[in-house]
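Sequence in, structure out. Go.
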Amino acid sequence: MLAKIADVMESVRAKTPLVHCITNYVTINDCANILLCFGASPAMCEAVAEVEEFVPFASALYINIGTFSKEQEEAAIPASLKAAELKVPVVIDPVACGVISRRMQVTKKLLDLAGITIIKGNTGEIKALAGYGAKVRGVDSLEEGEDAVEACVNLAKKYNTVVAATGKTDIVTDGARTCLIYNGTPMLSQITGAGCMVGALAAAAAGSSADGWAAAAAGVAIMGLAGEMAARASGPYPGTFRVKLFDSLYTMTREDIMKGGRIECI
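Output:
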């Protein structure tokens, strides 16, 4: 599995996929920069009048509903439909869908209308979307992971998609194949945008790989590993950590993944 993840990273760097993002205003710059560090090309195109025309140029579409304005909602639906028509992979991050009913409704509408390649959320969001009881606080998950694997598998099967749930232990499944990812650091919770950046990385990976499960696992694992590398270099300083996170991803090698990746397939 680690070799697959390293292959995905090298594919991104070789292909420079263009990732069309309709994303969170709080973290839009972080998503753009993490994509550049990964080897992808970001495009933050969300104008309703432009998205359908732009999607054909994209390798992947990333939709993050963290600050979901009416304009973004009106852009996300036609963009997703166009992506489905052209078989452009789509990654959705259903931020706070377990807290705000409108977000749950829009997420389910997108899942029903368009072919979503990857659903990436925290454990609480994924359990809420799957119809399980979930503890959430705003955009944060308070889940301990009970029933999380079952929820992820059932959600993946329901929508014929890949589900990636981030938490203390990350879960990635396509309903048939499931892996647990143990990379990460508490420092990732001390900066804004860590989850959004994972979604962006998964989209870049999906734009470079035909295997959505491997792509999602790569996005999640590489972010966790970059966080570990950054934490070792930064110490207990969130500002320094944020900078080192970008640097660690930019300089990550295949050897780093093979030595530092901690993944269990179940």
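Check: The mean pLDDT is 94. The longest helix spans residues 212-234.
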